[in-house]
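Write out the 3D structure for:
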Amino acid sequence: MTMNEADYKKPDYTTSHVSSWLETLGHLAGKKAYGIEIGCLEGRSSVWFLENILTHDNSGLVCIDPWSIPGTEETFDAVTRKWQSDFPAPSKLSKRKGLSYQCLREMPLNSFDFVYIDGCHQAANVIEDAVLSFRLLKKFGVMIFDDYPWDNGVVYQPPAKAIDAFLFLYADRIELLHKDWQVAVVKMGDWADATQDDRNLSSR
């Protein structure tokens, strides 16, 4: 089911990213795949992922958000309920209300095909989401960061600080797909794939 603009209260932050999402995640459509969305707000992007990427009957999306902005949880529930009413497998969507650093620790390792990070925009929170999520991704899974250049002048350390740090620290374990308003990377390996020399150094 395609949602109507009247279903939402907040601006459309989804449509401008559709072409890049299709490019980075389109290969998952029609296949059994699992995704995590950190920061779901009203569920506009959640429904898009379900309708366009996680199309296999056995695919699934975990939506993580504290829904601390008034009205957003009610809209999310109404929108996803409307979508599920026309879909034979409503279990495809799993809502996890809470802080991402807590919810991510409950997820199974090496089990997800993509993670979309659009939660708290403080750099410390962004890099924590990235590090925790990296462990959850399967090899060749995709991680997408939103709002790379965002800076409202109030947040102490904006997202770019964290994203650049992650790209530097994980450079030998990821492949950069694109870096614009959003940044997308592919997980090429895990810490377990490090060389023996790396493991020896890390044990000192």
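The first helix runs from residue 18 to 25.
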